[in-house]
Design goal:
Structural class of chain B: alpha/beta
Order of helices and strands of chain C: EEEHHHHHEEHHHHHHHHEEEHHHH
CATH architecture of chain B: 3-Layer(aba) Sandwich
GO molecular function (chain B): 4 iron, 4 sulfur cluster binding; iron ion binding; NADH dehydrogenase (quinone) (non-electrogenic) activity; NADH dehydrogenase (ubiquinone) activity; quinone binding
CATH topology of chain B: Rossmann fold
Largest sheet of chain B: 4 strands, parallel
Strand content of chain B: 5-15%
Radius of gyration of chain B: 18 Å
Domain NADH:ubiquinone oxidoreductase-like 20kDa subunit (chain B): 40-149
Strand order of the largest sheet of chain C: 1-2-3
Largest sheet of chain C: 3 strands, antiparallel
CATH superfamily of chain C: Cytochrome-c3 Hydrogenase, chain B
Cofactor (chain B): [4Fe-4S] cluster
Number of strands of chain B: 4
CATH topology of chain C: Cytochrome-c3 Hydrogenase, chain B
Structural class of chain C: mainly alpha
Main location (chain B): membrane
Distance between the termini of chain C: 43 Å
CATH class of chain C: Mainly Alpha
CATH class of chain B: Alpha Beta
Shape of chain C: globular
Number of domains of chain B: 1
EC number (chain B): 7.1.1.-
Strand content of chain C: 5-15%
Distance between the termini of chain B: 40 Å
Strand order of the largest sheet of chain B: 1-2-3-4
Largest interface: A-C, 35 and 37 residues
Order of helices and strands of chain B: HHEHEHEHEHH
Oligomer: heterotrimer
Number of helices of chain B: 7
Helix content of chain C: 40-55%
Helix content of chain B: 40-55%
Number of strands of chain C: 8
Shape of chain B: globular
C-alpha cells in the first residue's frame, strides 16, 4: 500500500477551515468537525473515490471532554488506499449518521449505540444489536465494570 | 406353579431390577444429543461425529435438530446473556429423562471471558451432569465425557435436575 | 438444462397482500452457529430477511482492555475459531507495527505457512458444511478427515488442535518440532489427490449447479457499500487481496494467483473459494521451501519476547526480563494503528489504541463476517426459502466473528 500523501493537502484546500491533521503511523488521518462530517464524507466518496466502507468505531476518552471519539475508516478500491477520519462527540450530543453515504455503516453504528451509547441522528434503525433490548447501560464505556452488574 | 413362582420373583423385586437395568443399558447405548453448537467447541463437536473419531461407535452420532427428539444437551461453547433464555427453553423442551454435558471452559465457568456478556458457567441456567474441561476440549475429551455419562446412566443414578429436585424435597 | 426454467424469476413477481413471518434460529443446524433470521414470506418467496445477531456476543473488546498485550493474543483465536492463525497474525502485526519491531524472516515464513494451512482447514469446513446445506452429506466426512491432518500439523507445532495462539508478538511461541518439514511435505503431496476426490463429487454435479447458479447475487456496488471483502468481493471480479495489495509477512516474495469470477452469485463464490484452496497449497509449498530447519523463530529483543529457558537459569538479566514480561507485560508507544490481513473470510483487522501502558486502551476487531453478513437482506430478497440457507452458507459467515 502506498499512502496518498497529497490527499490531506487537497482536502485542506477544499475544506478551508476546520480540518486538523493527525500524524498516524499507518494511514492519513484527519479530524473533522461534527458539523462538516456529512459534507466531508460525501466529498471523500464522490470526488476522491473512497467508495468502499471499512469500519466505524468509537473510543471512549472518559473523563475527558468531549468524551467519545468516533473513527471512520474507508477504502479506495482503485488505488488500494486507506483513509481515516475522526470526529468528537459528547454524551449529550449526537452524531450525523453515515448510512446515507455508506450503507454498511448501519450495523457498526448500531453497535456504537449499543456498547457506547453514542446516538446517530437519522439512523434507520437505532436499536441494540448485540445485547438484549432490556439491557441497562453501555458496557464498553470506561466507567462500566468489566464483570457487569451481576446478581448471582 | 409358573405364575406363582413369577409372582414370588416379583415380590422379591428381581424382575423389576432387571427391567431397570435393561432400560438403563438401552438408554445409555443410544444417547441422542441435541445440536447445541455455540462457539469453538461446536467445531470439535462436529469433529467427534465425523470420520476420525466417529461417535457412532457409542450410539451417540444421531444429533437431533429438534430438542424433542434428544435426551442429551451438549452445551458447546460460551453462553451469552442473550442466549441463556433460549438455552433454558430448549432444555425444557427436551423429554425426560435428560442430561446435560457442559463442554469446555466457557460453558463450565465462563473461561477467559470474565465479563458482562457471558454467563459464568451454564450451571446457572440448567443443571449439568458432566463437565468436560479444555479450551476447546479435544474430541477424545468429549468422548470421555460421554462415556462417563454412560456409566452414570448404567449405574442408575438420577440426572442432575432430578437430584436437585430431590434435594429441594419436592417431586421432580 | 430444462429444469432450470422451473425456478421463477426473482424480480418479475407481483407480491400478494398476505405475508407470513417465520423465524429461523438461533438454534438451527443450517445457520452455522447461533444466527437468527426473521423472514417475511409471500408464499415461498422471501420479501424480507433480517438477520438478528448478538446470541454469541462475548465482549471481546471489553475483556481485551483488561489484559496485557501478550494475553490479548489468546482471545483473538476465539474470534473466528475456524482460522485462529490469521486472527493471531493480524493482531501481532498490529502490535509489532506500533512497536516498530523487526521479526526474523524465518518466523515470517512460518507464519505464512500456518496462515495458509489454516486457510485450507477453514475452507474445508466451509466446503463440507456448505455442500451439506445443499443436501450432499458425504463430502462433509471427507473434508473433516483431511482437516484432521491439518490440525495434526498445528498440534505438532503449537501443542493444541484449535485456538493455538502460536504467533506471538515478536515471532512465534516455539520453534517447529523435529521432522515437521517431512510431515507438511507428506500432507502437500497427498493434497492434490484429495482435492480431486472432492471435485469428483461437486464439479459438474447438476444438483449443486442448480442450487448455486444465479442464486443470492451480490454486485460490486453492494460490496463497496457494505465493506464486503474476501472471496465474496473477488467473486464480483475485483482481485482485492491484501496479500497482494498490502503485502505483510513477506507475501510479496510468493508466487500465487488471486482467483476471481465475475458473476457474483453463490456459484462464483463457491469456485473462488475452491480455487483459493489450490493457491493456498501452492503458497504453503513455497513457504516450506523457504523455512530452514534451524534458525531464529522470534526476535531477540528481550523487552518483548521471552528469553529462552536455559538463559533464565544462568543469567540474572534474563530472569528479570522474564519476570517483567510475565507479570507486567511490555509497554507500547502511545498512538493508534490499524493492521489487516487477508483471512479466509476477508479482511481481518485490528484497530488498537494505546495510551502508553502495557494494556490496550481500545481494542477493536474488524471481523469480516460481520460486514459480509450485513448484505444478507439484499442477497436473500426475492429468492426462495431454501435459497436463504444457500445464501448463509455461500457468504461463509462464522458467528464468533459476527458477534465478537
Amino acid at each position: 500500500m502506498t499512502n496518498d500523501v497529497g490527499i490531506i493537502e487537497r482536502l485542506k484546500n477544499h475544506f478551508a477551515e476546520g480540518l486538523e491533521t493527525v500524524t498516524s503511523i499507518d494511514q492519513p488521518t484527519v479530524i473533522v468537525p461534527r458539523g462538516q462530517l456529512l459534507a466531508f464524507a460525501e466529498h471523500l466518496k464522490s470526488v476522491e473515490g473512497y467508495v468502499m466502507f471499512n469500519d466505524v468505531l468509537v473510543v471512549d476518552w472518559f473523563p475527558a471532554r468531549p468524551r467519545f471519539e468516533v473513527v471512520y475508516q474507508v477504502y479506495q478500491p482503485e488505488t488500494r488506499q486507506r483513509f481515516r477520519f475522526k470526529s468528537f462527540v459528547d454524551e449529550s450530543e449526537s452524531m450525523p449518521t453515515m448510512t446515507g453515504v455508506w450503507a454498511g455503516a448501519n450495523w457498526p453504528e448500531r453497535e456504537a449505540f449499543d456498547l457506547f451509547g453514542v446516538v446517530f441522528d437519522g439512523h434507520p434503525d437505532l436499536t441494540r444489536i448485540y445485547l438484549p433490548d432490556d439491557w441497562e447501560g453501555h458496557p464498553l464505556r470506561k466507567d462500566y465494570p468489566t464483570g457487569g452488574n451481576r446478581i448471582d | 406353579m409358573g405364575l406363582n413362582s413369577a409372582q414370588k420373583e416379583v415380590e422379591r423385586g428381581i424382575l423389576l431390577t432387571t427391567v431397570d437395568k435393561m432400560s438403563h443399558w438401552a438408554q445409555k447405548s443410544s444417547v441422542w444429543p441435541a445440536t447445541f453448537g455455540l462457539a469453538c467447541c461446536a467445531i470439535e463437536m462436529m469433529s467427534v461425529t465425523s470420520s476420525r473419531y466417529d461417535l457412532a461407535r457409542f450410539g451417540s452420532e444421531a444429533f437431533r435438530a429438534s430438542p424433542r427428539q434428544a435426551d442429551l444437551m451438549i452445551v458447546a461453547g460460551r453462553v451469552s446473556q442473550k442466549m441463556a433464555p433460549v438455552l433454558r427453553t430448549i432444555w425444557e423442551q427436551m423429554p425426560e429423562p435428560k442430561w446435560v454435558i457442559s463442554m469446555g471452559a466457557c460453558a463450565s465457568s465462563g473461561g477467559v471471558f470474565d465479563n458482562y456478556a457471558i454467563i459464568q458457567g451454564v450451571d446457572h441456567v440448567v443443571p449439568v451432569d458432566v463437565y468436560v474441561p479444555g479450551c476447546p476440549p479435544s474430541p477424545e475429551a468429549l468422548m470421555f465425557g460421554i462415556l462417563k455419562l454412560r456409566e452414570k446412566i448404567q449405574m442408575g443414578l438420577p440426572p442432575k435436575y432430578q437430584e436437585v429436585a430431590m434435594a429441594r424435597g419436592g417431586a421432580s | 438444462m430444462a429444469t432450470e426454467e422451473v425456478r421463477p424469476a426473482a424480480d418479475t413477481e407481483v407480491l400478494s397482500d398476505e405475508t407470513m413471518v417465520i423465524n429461523i434460529g438461533p438454534q438451527h443446524p443450517a445457520t452455522h452457529g447461533v444466527l437468527r433470521v426473521r423472514l417475511t414470506l409471500d408464499g415461498e418467496r422471501v420479501v424480507k430477511a433480517e438477520p438478528i445477531i448478538g446470541y454469541l456476543h462475548t465482549g471481546f473488546e471489553k475483556t481485551a482492555e483488561t489484559l496485557t498485550y501478550q494475553q490479548c493474543n489468546t482471545i483473538t483465536d476465539r474470534l473466528d475459531y475456524l482460522s485462529p492463525m490469521t486472527n493471531n497474525l493480524a493482531y501481532v502485526l498490529a502490535v509489532e507495527k506500533m512497536l516498530e519491531l523487526e521479526v526474523p524472516n524465518r518466523a515470517q515464513y512460518i507464519r505464512v505457512l500456518f496462515s495458509e494451512l489454516t486457510r485450507l482447514a477453514s475452507h474445508l469446513v466451509w466446503l463440507g458444511t456448505h455442500v451439506m446445506d445443499l443436501g450432499a452429506m458425504s463430502l462433509f466426512f471427507y473434508c473433516m478427515r483431511e482437516r484432521e491432518v491439518i490440525l495434526d500439523l498445528i498440534e505438532a507445532a503449537a501443542g493444541v488442535r484449535m485456538n493455538p495462539s502460536y504467533f506471538r508478538v515478536g515471532g512465534l511461541a516455539y520453534d517447529l518440532p523435529l521432522g515437521f518439514h517431512e510431515k507438511v511435505r507428506d500432507f502437500l503431496k497427498d493434497w492434490p489427490r484429495w482435492m480431486k476426490t472432492y471435485m469428483n463429487l461437486v464439479d459438474g454435479n447438476p444438483l449443486i449447479n442448480q442450487r448455486l447458479k444465479g442464486i443470492s447475487v451480490m454486485d460490486r456496488e453492494t460490496c463497496y457499500q457494505y465493506g464486503v471483502t474476501g472471496p465474496n468481493i473477488r467473486a464480483t471480479g475485483l482481485p482485492l487481496d491484501l496479500r497482494k495489495d498490502e503485502p505483510y509477512c513477506l507475501y510479496d516474495q510468493f508466487e500465487f494467483n488471486v482467483p476471481t469470477r465475475t458473476e457474483g452469485d453463490a456459484y462464483a463464490r463457491f469456485w473462488v473459494r475452491v480455487e483459493e484452496m489450490y493457491e493456498a497449497a501452492k503458497i504453503a509449498e513455497q513457504a516450506l521451501d523457504k523455512i530452514t530447519p534451524q534458525g531464529e523463530f522470534a526476535t531477540s529483543d528481550r523487552k518483548v519476547a521471552l528469553p529462552p529457558r536455559d538463559e533464565i537459569y544462568g543469567n540474572m538479566e534474563a530472569l528479570i526480563h522474564q519476570f517483567k514480561l510475565v507479570t507486567a507485560g511490555f509497554p507500547v508507544p502511545t498512538g493508534e494503528v490499524y493492521q489487516a490481513v487477508e483471512g479466509p473470510r476477508g479482511e481481518m483487522g485490528f484497530y488498537i489504541v494505546s495510551d502508553g501502558g502495557p494494556k490496550p486502551y481500545r481494542w477493536r476487531a474488524r471481523t469480516p463476517s460481520y460486514y459480509n453478513l450485513q448484505t444478507m437482506p439484499i442477497i436473500a430478497k426475492g429468492g426462495l426459502v431454501a435459497d436463504v440457507i444457500t445464501a448463509i452458507g455461500s457468504i461463509d459467515i462464522m458467528l464468533g466473528d459476527v458477534d465478537k
